[in-house]
Amino acid sequence: MAYTLQQLSDFEDIRTLKHRYYRAIDTADVALLDTLFTDDVSVDYRGGGYRVTLTGRQEMVDFLASSFHSDFAGMHYGHMPEITLTGDDEAEGIWYLEDIAIFTDSGVHTSGSAVYKDRYRREDGRWKIAHTEYDRIVEVVRKLTPDEKVTAHYLAKAGLKPHERKDISHLITWFDEAA
Amino acid sequence: MAYTLQQLSDFEDIRTLKHRYYRAIDTADVALLDTLFTDDVSVDYRGGGYRVTLTGRQEMVDFLASSFHSDFAGMHYGHMPEITLTGDDEAEGIWYLEDIAIFTDSGVHTSGSAVYKDRYRREDGRWKIAHTEYDRIVEVVRKLTPDEKVTAHYLAKAGLKPHERKDISHLITWFDEAA
Amino acid sequence: MAYTLQQLSDFEDIRTLKHRYYRAIDTADVALLDTLFTDDVSVDYRGGGYRVTLTGRQEMVDFLASSFHSDFAGMHYGHMPEITLTGDDEAEGIWYLEDIAIFTDSGVHTSGSAVYKDRYRREDGRWKIAHTEYDRIVEVVRKLTPDEKVTAHYLAKAGLKPHERKDISHLITWFDEAA
Q: Residue B138 and which of A3, B100, B129, C2 are 20 to 30 A apart at CA?
């Protein structure tokens, strides 16, 4: 009832793949992001006040780079993976997101949690994210108080400036805030 | 000085067991919770303002389902396991809890951390939680501000409604808030 | 393309090393801290409002014990490791820090994230931290509100009292808060 070396290695590599994803979005590492998804990646994020649906690696990278931009400060943590190998080169994963998102210009502060259901595929020896979706579990929205100071903000320099961002509005639907 | 395949597999499965626990409590997945504990599970949670002690799987599942109910929004994250195999079918684990708990009716918001000491036992080939206890490290209590909106609340639908909850008051002792 | 048993074991042990580090600093477990670093450990923490540089195990343990003292409440979580084995007894690791730090006397509350680049070395069969550095990604500073109560504070008892602390001011440079 033990896993094989290959299976244990796959668990390690799939975890690291997802860990890289979170680091890459919060530091706007677009070159790294570009290596993490299959060409046909599909996305469905069901947030409290929004829904994101998109398809394809280029659309995903554009969405991420233009969402987590120079007026955004994000802390995205992926916790507590439950990974299942479903084939030699296919796997599924459940993850628990913890996130804090601050729009530094408007001062809107969103925090919460979500449960992901992912699919992974190995291509040319490397695991990639083939599908990712989540449902929000908790989401809380408030404004930064006058007393509250953002004293480090990596994306201010690393993130895309307003004129560099792509229009991604067709990928997001915004809802009323009623829970 | 390397672990065996079996030992490495046990580390994986024990982690996943605990990961499932956190997902199950925050989404009120009682069917999943029911599979995670030994029949003789024992619990001792030493919080800042409370202490929980109980014994037995049914009492544990009742406690969890009636604590994390439809007027509660919880984010429970289990971090940084230190797992030790103490027998072929026995293990111990230290985990670091990060949690945010919101009573959505009263607006009481509790956040903090705790260090768990767990024991696990394998029964019929599956690892289960046989004992779990924690000590609070930090706990902070405040009220939601008028500006602060809960914009997603999964347990509002999935959690037990008031008339469905069991009386678990005998399992909890509440203290004064003096630290 | 699978890892060996030794490599998988090293991943496990390096993770556990770092997990112990976080538990030890938040509970002022100086005896445990003393076992986690090489004698020549080097540190460079580039925070939002501070920079810490130091060298040597004793200086590191002194710094940690006198930073996380009886008037400090800390929650430090190390997430999402990306570990690379660079030799039989050498490894590198990227980690993502999530932290909340409360000075309980002044009420200053700092929260944020950072990305670590660590190096590890195996000595006498045990992995130790040989180098650790981080860059802040996000840092937010505020004061506890009058409504906000610290209801558990482990370091109040376990942490060093004022007269027990060493002068570590030469290890820290404080900056203006301008982001």
A: B129
